[in-house]
């Protein structure tokens, strides 16, 4: 193991950034924790009551009379239960719970509260923030990204950090800004280390994003990123095969036109693709004008 004393300040900074991107939020507890004692207490708490009776120190088996008269351990003598991670909910049951709480919400405010209180998705337990829709819900314009980034998770808002700055420029280029559209993500919690969400996690989160769309009732949707395009179009092609073409998606018996484009983070990685994104933005702008959602 390499000691921190052997690393330069730049190497230490790079290591800390790596851990932050991987989802590590702290390195040390505020108080020392005896994990060995905690583990033993957990085992004792799970042990049947009959196995917790006092046994002779010599290892000899007590006689019948001794077994009958041996006092039972009092409540004070029993190990205190140890708080641990919340129990996992079977995927199928979690999906049903997500559908129930999503359908019960009658406004975006109620849905936000319901999602923040929902504990059926393991992504929530590793994320710092719950990313929910922000902006103008009455605009008729919705922009949907894939999943929160590390910057989104820290700021608690979609499209934060450097990709968010580029996103703001993209909107401004077609006469929009954050306050004039409704912004959200398919997945409300950042997957650890920016990994892809699993099929079970996607199924659990689906009722939440679909309910956001149903309540906002957008007239046009811009999808950013490969995952968002695949999620709504139901295809496995790459973003380069899915972008730039209008497709209808059906949410709550409403048919909504949607177009996909590259995510701002993709453009930071490969700036040469900005021309493709610009063509998609022009197509989105033209659609908004045809729907009288954007002034000429």
From TrEMBL:
Could you name the domain of life of the organism this protein comes from? Bacteria
Span list, region Disordered = 45-90
Enzyme Commission number(s) from the entry: 3.2.2.27
What reaction does this catalyse?
Answer: Hydrolyzes single-stranded DNA or mismatched double-stranded DNA and polynucleotides, releasing free uracil
Iron found in the keyword field: yes
Residue ranges, compositional bias (Low complexity):
71-81
Instruction: Give the matching Pfam families.
Output: UDG (PF03167)
Q: Which UniProt keywords apply?
A: 4Fe-4S, DNA damage, DNA repair, Hydrolase, Iron, Iron-sulfur, Metal-binding
Q: Under which name does UniProt file this protein?
A: Type-4 uracil-DNA glycosylase
Which species is listed as the source?
Rhizobium phaseoli
